[in-house]
Amino acid sequence: MSNREIYLDHAATTPVDPIVADTISQIQADCFANPSSPHRAGRRAHHILDESRGKILEYFDCSDATLIFTSGATEANYLAVHGLRNPEQTAFGTSQRDHESLRNAALSLTTQSAKQTILPLDENGCLCKKDLQSWLLSIDTSSQQRSRLEDVNAYNVFLSTTLVCGQTGTVEDMSGIQQVLEDTDTRYTLHVDATQAVGKIPVSFPETGATSLAFTPHKFGGPRGIGCLIIKKNVEWKPLFSGSQQLAMRGGTEPVALIAGCQEAAHQAITQQHSESRRLTSLKEFFESTICEMAKEVGIVPSIICQNTRRSPHISTIAFPGIDRQAFMMAADLAGLAVATGTACASGSQEPAPALIAMNLPKPVIQSAIRFSFGRTTYANDLETALEKIYCILQKGSSVSPNHPI
Questions:
Q1: pTM of the model
Q2: Which fold has domain 6-15+273-397?
Q3: What is the topology classification, in CATH, of domain 18-271?
Q4: What's the confidence (pLDDT) of residue 248?
Q5: What percent of the chain has pLDDT over 90?
Q6: Which of 3, 26, 144, 361 has its CA at a distance of 20 to 30 angstroms from the CA of residue 339?
Q7: What 3 state SS string does the chain have?
């Protein structure tokens, strides 16, 4: 059995694509100047900045939208929540499928008169449309500020959702959410976190129906330290960082090389999305079927989370009841396997993935769920070797007492 390290945590971050790395190096060397400087070198950097911004917007079918570059998806989510929030809004809806950065940003608004509601998930790990509708209608009927037929613009709801859940891989039904919002005659701001979606499923900003959309390229072969927030045309915006850069929407000198790398990574990921998704789907199906057979061989009844739901091709979350998830992850690490028990930002936590709890899954399933995620550098022979190692871990884990894990 090979001792080579096998990386199955692409949902946390991905290796930088060599083409992207070359782009970044070239721009750092040739266009290092401050893009706000009026001299020739500055103008050259500014041209790269504008060109990269325009191309990224084209990739998402929204050339007339606004694109703000941030330090990452966490900041992009925070800016959307705080920068787009209308002072008249008093209701904020989020869910446990959302990234911690979104949930925390919403929580910070509770001191600013915006009441946060954690919306329930359905059995597929997506927003429960029936509960979403009930929440929206309850806001209408309880509000003393207006009636539905009179001052319609006096009330606004901010709803955040995640296109692909980083904990389960489930794909949100955006058309269903839009339908509920329209049916309840709600004046809303809709923010979509597409961090796990870009390069894995088609992402068109207009088709999401969103007011804003966030992502970061380090999830699809791009650099860390850069993120994107796309905002619908003519949407009112409140800057959170003063400065003249980026239409005075976010101050700070723009990292031109990282932005060019982001654009190249998006180009590579989006143009190859169809073929790469087919390849990853095939690998995921092979991995899941084989690992389930192996688990049953050693007396474990595995559970593929949201198996019959539309999922992203790169995430597979599997529970092995009777096997402690933290013990599995440590054993995997010792065996040279990089896997996860949830999102990377919460990896230090002993708590289970919030989305799994919100789905009301059985406790043994929640306590034993492991996330495997694949990417551009994942190949069939990697998975074959990984499966051999996992079989040994499961075999050892199934033979010990639950009080003395692996």
A1: 0.91
A2: Aspartate Aminotransferase, domain 1 (3.90.1150)
A3: Aspartate Aminotransferase; domain 2 (3.40.640)
A4: 81
A5: 74
A6: 361
A7: CCCCCEECECCCCCCCCHHHHHHHHHHHHHCCCCCCCCCHHHHHHHHHHHHHHHHHHHHCCCCCCEEEEECCHHHHHHHHHHHCCCCCCCEEEEECCCCHHHHHHHHHHHHHCCEEEEECECCCCCECHHHHHHHHHHHHHHCCCCCCCCCHHHCCEEEEEECECCCCCEECCHHHHHHHHHHCCCCEEEEEECCCCECCECCCHHHHCCCEEEECHHHCCCCCCCEEEEECCCCCCCCCCCCCHHHHCCCCCCCHHHHHHHHHHHHHHHHCHHHHHHHHHHHHHHHHHHHHHHHHHCCCCCEECCCCCCECCCEEEEECCCCCHHHHHHHHHHCCEECECCCHHHCCCCCCCHHHHHCCCCHHHHCCEEEEECCCCCCHHHHHHHHHHHHHHHHHHCCCCCCCCC
